[in-house]
Design brief:
It contains 12 helices and 13 strands. Helix content is 37%, strand content 16%. The protein has 332 residues and is of the alpha/beta class. Helix 1 links the parallel strand 1 and strand 2. The protein starts with 12 loop residues before the first strand and ends in a 15-residue tail after the last helix. It has a domain of 155 residues: 3-Layer(aba) Sandwich (Rossmann fold). It has a 7-stranded parallel beta sheet with strand order 3-2-1-4-5-6-11, sandwiched between helices. Strands 7-10 form a two-stranded parallel ribbon.
Length: 332
C-alpha cells in the first residue's frame, strides 16, 4: 500500500461504528490510506480480526461496542476526532434487535459526539418514511430525525442500493438465479434504482471529514445511471451469462416468498435469501432527488465522479457464471 507519510505528522483518530461490515471495511481502508488512525467499534471483535490487516501496524484498533449502551459508546469515542455511524443495513432487518440498534444507537452516538464537539457522519438511505409499511424505512426516518435534532452539524449520507464485491443485493440476486427457473419481478419490476459504488461512499466520508462538504446537510448518494429493477436484473443475468425469463409477480406473492425465506433464515443452517422487508423496499423508487441535484448535495456536487455499475459488476459477479470466470456469454 503506497502511503504519503507526510499525512502521519498529526494523525487523527476516527471511530467507525459498524466498521467491519460491507460499507465499513471500505471506509476504514480509505481512511487508513489517508493517514488516519481508525478505531473499529463492533459488537463481536473476534469475528472481525481480519480488519486488523488494513493499514500499517497499529493504525487500526478493534473495540467491542454496544451502540445501545451509552457508556459503551462513550468509551468508543474517547479521544476521537470524528465518528462515522454505520447502523445495520437492509439485510439486517430480520434480526430482533434491529430497531434498537438503529434508534438507540443514533441517539447515543449523536448525543456523545455533540458533547465531545466532534463531527458525525451518519449512514442512512434514500428511502426514509415514518409512515412506511416496512420497518427499515420507519427506523431510518426516526433515526435521521434524532441525529438532526441532537447534532445539527451532522452530515447524513443517504445512499441508493450499494454495489461492490461483498454486497447483499447483486450477489444475492445472482446467486438466486442459479436455482430459480425464472426470475420474479416483484410488484412488476418498474421501481427505479440508482446503484452507487461502495468505494465512492468511502471517498465521500473522507471528503466530509476533511471539510469538503457542508456541515448539517443531507447528501443523496447515487451512481451515474438510473435503472428499473427489471433493467438491473437483466444486467446481472447478462454479466453472469445466464438465460432466465423474468416474470412480473404480484406484491402479495412476493411478500409470501419473502416471509418464507425470512423465517427460514432465522435458523443457522439456512441463509436468508430475501425477506418481506426487502420486497417492500423494492416497491419504492430509490434515486437521488431533484432537490439534491439542484443544490449540489450529491457525489458529483462534492467533486466525486461515481463509478458505473456496468463497469464494476463483472469484476466480482463472474463467480456466478455456469463455467466460471472464463465462460463464454451464451445468454445474449
Amino acid at each position: 500500500m503506497k502511503l504519503d507519510y507526510a499525512l502521519y505528522q498529526n494523525p487523527k483518530l476516527i471511530t467507525v461504528f459498524g466498521g467491519s461490515g460491507f460499507v465499513g471495511r471500505y471506509i476504514v481502508e480509505t481512511l487508513t490510506k489517508r493517514g488516519y488512525r481508525v478505531r473499529i467499534a463492533v459488537r463481536c471483535p473476534q469475528k472481525a480480526y481480519y480488519m486488523l490487516q488494513i493499514g500499517e501496524v497499529g493504525q487500526t484498533q478493534m473495540l467491542k461496542t454496544d451502540v445501545r449502551n451509552y457508556a459503551s459508546v462513550a468509551n468508543a469515542l474517547s479521544g476521537a476526532d470524528g465518528a462515522v455511524f454505520l447502523p445495520g443495513g437492509l439485510a439486517q432487518t430480520n434480526k430482533p434487535n434491529f430497531q434498537n440498534i438503529q434508534v438507540d444507537g443514533a441517539r447515543n452516538v449523536s448525543e456523545l459526539t455533540i458533547k465531545a464537539g466532534i463531527p458525525l457522519i451518519y449512514m442512512s438511505t434514500l428511502i426514509t418514511d415514518k409512515n412506511a409499511s416496512f420497518s427499515y424505512a420507519r427506523a431510518k426516518a426516526l433515526s435521521e430525525q434524532i441525529v438532526r435534532n441532537t447534532h445539527p452539524q451532522a452530515i447524513i449520507m443517504r445512499s441508493s442500493v450499494i454495489f461492490g464485491p461483498e454486497d447483499c443485493f447483486f450477489n444475492v440476486l445472482a446467486n438466486f438465479s442459479r436455482f430459480m427457473p425464472i426470475m420474479p419481478l416483484f410488484g412488476g419490476g418498474q421501481s427505479k434504482l440508482q446503484p452507487v459504488y461502495v468505494g465512492d461512499i468511502a471517498k465521500f466520508v473522507v471528503h466530509a471529514l476533511e471539510g469538503h462538504v457542508i456541515l448539517g446537510k443531507s447528501y443523496d448518494l447515487g451512481g451515474p445511471k438510473i435503472f428499473t429493477f427489471q433493467n438491473a436484473l437483466e444486467e446481472i443475468l447478462k454479466v453472469i451469462h445466464r438465460k432466465k425469463r423474468t416474470v412480473p409477480l404480484p406484491l402479495a406473492a412476493g411478500l409470501f416468498i419473502g416471509g418464507f425465506f425470512g423465517t427460514l433464515g432465522k435458523f443457522p443452517l439456512f441463509p436468508t435469501l430475501i425477506t418481506a422487508n426487502q420486497i417492500r423496499f423494492l416497491q419504492r423508487d430509490n434515486i437521488v432527488s431533484q432537490e439534491a441535484r439542484d443544490n449540489g448535495y450529491t457525489l458529483e456536487g462534492v467533486g466525486i465522479i461515481p463509478k458505473s455499475m456496468t463497469a464494476i459488476l463483472p469484476s466480482y459477479l463472474w463467480r456466478f457464471r455456469p463455467q466460471g470466470q472464463f465462460s463464454h456469454n451464451l445468454s445474449i
